[in-house]
Amino acid sequence: MSSAGMSGAINIMRRELTGYFATPVAYVFLVIFLVMTGVFTFYLGNFYERGFADLDPFFRFHPWLYLFLVPAISMRLWAEERRSGTIELLFTLPLTTVDAVLGKFLAAWLFIGLALVLTFPMWITVNYLGSPDNGVILAGYLGSWLMAGGFLAIGSCMSALTRNQVVAFILSVVVCFLFLLSGLPMVMNLFKGWAPQVILDGIAGLSFFKHFADISKGVIDLRDLVYFVLVIGFWLFANVVILELKKAE
Amino acid sequence: MIEAKSLCKRYGSFTAVDDLSFTVEAGQVLGFLGPNGAGKSTTMKMLTGFLTPTSGTALINGIDVTENSVAALKHIGYLPEGAPSYGEMTVRQFLAFIARARLIDSRDVDDSVDKAIDKLNLSTVAHQPIETLSKGFNRRVGLAQAIIHDPQILILDEPTDGLDPNQKHEVRHLIQDMAHDKIIVISTHILEEVEAVCNRVMIISDGKLLADDTPSGLISRSRYHNSVSMVVAEAEKVASVLSELPEVAKAELREGELTLFPADGNGLFEAITAAISANHWQVSALRLEVGRLDEVFRSITRKEATS
Asked: What is the reported pTM?
């Protein structure tokens, strides 16, 4: 933290958000996000045919949506600063690396939060059609936003490794994919039979899927919240370390 | 005060900056002069904490810039190489961001931005996105962000690169205006700039310090220092007559211009003017040379390259 506390991070966050809306990036992302959630919910999720008044078909596809859309946001976070040389400007301001990493992360996270908020017609629709448990829906939104934060922290860290946005995108998708898959049967079957139960639990415990599914059932367990906070904290810490190491290169 | 103590920067087996030590005090305008790739920018990046030195330290007003970069950087205004900025922002938005990052009180941000815009003549483009501006405006935006918090130390990497002659003149004027109570370090490969704004010059080549002097001190190292150049009819005859004078060490005729080098440094000009009037030579140009910085620069940096 700088001597001015969070003000350094907040200043960076404001600048980033200004940057998003000064270019078509923000609008293109928002439109695509909203169209894709709609397509997934109604066509793949059989929202109407299921006959249940809930948003499960909506939330179920969020991990897959984030797998590609969050790296599309995060890939430019640091790669673009390196390519354009503004990283030199940024790191010679009286700010800490932690300020800069937090500011950028918060801006992107708030932006994805805005995209989620803009899906409110979905919530209105389901309330119009039936009487869903709005607590569960709220939990779903919270879980989805936390999971997006996890993807974003990974993406931000990957973006710090390169000046090439395409490389940053691919690296992010791969690492996010591993985190997603770690709980699925196809991965677990690889380990079952030879790995001890502790390791199996550990691998399964890393999965975004499992923790997101738990939260979006409406059961907000402290362990699931802590899990996402730890994932975000770990990757942002790695992000800071990578940036510091690059200074000595 | 800036203190560089044995700064070294190595990339594998390549040494970009090799054991550089110097101090700069208030009132000094120091020019880093050197060929491209000499290590000027790398040195500036280490002074501003953007790069961590392989060994050695840089102190800004006694604060180690690697150990405590936030405290050290408060004293510095920095224009990085190429004047990078956030192109999608307008000039005003960008300068306001820098002002806040420079810890200017939120009530004074607008005022500081106005002053910086005024100083760099940016008012006509204040509301345009930076990426739509010409190279000259871009550079001035970079300078505006460097001075917005009225820093005690200014580090400017090629401040006039890409500017037209009038803009160069304005920027040099700006630097001179700020010079009296500040420390200013500029890097350049434009020799006339050093003569125009600096009161101290460091010539760097291959990461090594080759000369540290005042501009006039450097110029006096020139072999042309105190020589006399003239354009004269029948130059070869004149040359042979003048070489006989005890004040003349050597005469050189090049491209129609005759240059006479002094034997001991005194009385050459007087001796030549006396000879001209005595012999009624037709002289169309005559001047006393103070020296040529480009020649000093070449001889210093080439000596290094060949040794």
From this structure: 0.88
